[in-house]
Prior knowledge:
By secondary structure, this protein is α/β, with parallel strands linked by helices. It folds into two domains: 3-145 and 304-347, 3-Layer(aba) Sandwich (Rossmann fold), CATH 3.40.50; 149-300, 3-Layer(aba) Sandwich (Rossmann fold), CATH 3.40.50. It has 14 helices and 13 strands. It has helices at 17-31, 43-48, 56-59, 90-99, 111-122, 147-168, 183-192, 206-218, 235-249, 254-270, 274-286, 306-324, 344-347, 359-366; strands spanning 3-9, 34-39, 51-53, 80-82, 85-87, 104-109, 127-131, 171-176, 196-198, 224-229, 290-294, 330-335, 338-343. Strand 1, helix 1 and strand 2 form a beta-alpha-beta unit. The radius of gyration is 22 Å and the shape is globular. 47% of the residues are buried. 6-O-phosphono-beta-D-fructofuranose (F6P) is lined by residues 12, 110, 133-135, 177-179, 230, 300.
Amino acid sequence: MKKQIGILTSGGDCPGLNAAIRGLVRAGQEHFSMRCVGFRDGFRGLVQDRTLELTPDVLSGTLTNGGTILGTSRDKPHRMPIGGKVRDMTDAVVETYQRHHLDALVCLGGGGTQKNALRLKQAGLNVVTLPKTIDNDVAFTDVTFGFDTALNIVTEAIDRLHSTAMSHQRVIVVEVMGHRAGWLALGAGIAGGADVILIPEIPYDVEIVAQAIRRRTRAGKTFSIVAVAEGANSQSQAEAIAKLVAAKDQAKNKAERKEISAQLDAFHEKHVNHTVELTSRLEELTGLESRLTILGHLQRGGAPSAADRILATRLGTGCAELLSRDTHGVMVAARSQGVEPVPLETVAGQKNLVCPEHPWVQAARHVGTCLGDRL
Ligand code: F6P
C-alpha cells in the first residue's frame, strides 16, 4: 500500500521551499512508494481542502525557483480568521487529513509552524516539519534553508551601498530582516564589511555608534555603513521590553497578562520606524549626511543559492526517508552533513538567537566592527 503524504508551506516564504518539496516528493515517489498531495496557502488550504496533486510535471523546473508552488499564509489552525471571526479550525484540519487518508502531514515552516504542528500532533495527527526561514531563528537545527540566499542578497546590497556611501561621504543605514534575531544582519554585516552592526541580542547606545563613526572620520574614512537588524533595540528600549516581559511573567491573572501583551505589541508596532529615527539621530550626532535603505522583501525573493538548494534537498529527501520508517512528531533538523529528527515538543516555542559570545560576534569585534555596546 502506498503511503499518503500531505504537504504544506506556512509562514513567510523563502528561497528553497520548492527544492525541499521536490526533494521530498521525488524521493517519496521513486524510492519509498509514497503518493504526495499538496495543500494550498498553508493551513488555510488544509482547512478548506484546496489541493495540488504533486505530479512529476508539476515539480519539473521548480528546483531553481523562489517562493512556493503551494502558496503560503500566516494562518494558524487554532486561530483562523473566517467570515470576520477568529475561529478554532482544528477539527476541519483533522477532517481533511482523514478524508485524504493521510499517513502523515509535512509542514515546511519557521518558528510559528513548529508550534502549530505540535498542536496538530496533540490533536492526533502524524506531523513532521522542515525548518525554513531567512531569519535562521529555528532552534535545534544547524541552519534553516532560505538563510544562505538572503545572506548573499544582503551582502551584495551592502557591497553596492559602499560605493555610493563613499562617493557622497555619507552614513548609510541598511535595515535587514530577521524578526527578533540578528543572524542575517550579523552575517551580512561581517561578509559585507559593515562598520557598525546592530542586532537585537546586543542592545546599542546611539552615542557609541556615533563615536565609532566619528573615529572613522578622524582616520580619514568619510563614510560609514551601519547594518541594523529590524529587531535591534537601543539599551533603553531593551530595558523597557525586559520590564514588560518580566511583568507579563509575573501577571496575577489572564486580564493583566493580556493588558501587558497589548503594551508589548504596541511597543513593537511603534518600533517599525526605529531605523528612520536612528538615521536622523546619527546625522545629528556625526554631522554627516545620512540615508536609510530598507531592503524589505527583496531579501526573501528570487532563486535559492546553491547552498540552499543542497540543504533543502537534503532535508526533503531525509524527511521522505524518516516517513518511510514511520517516524513522526518531529522536525527534520540539519545536523552536520546529515539530518536528525528532533521531537516537536523540544523545538516548539524555542528560538535560535545570536549568543553575544558567538564566534561571529567575536570575529566582528576583532576586525574592528562596532556592535553598538562598546568601542
Ligand atoms: O520570517 C521571515 C520574515 O521575512 C521576517 O524577517 C520579517 O520580520 C517577516 O517575515 C515579515 O513578514 P511579512 O512578509 O508578513 O511582512
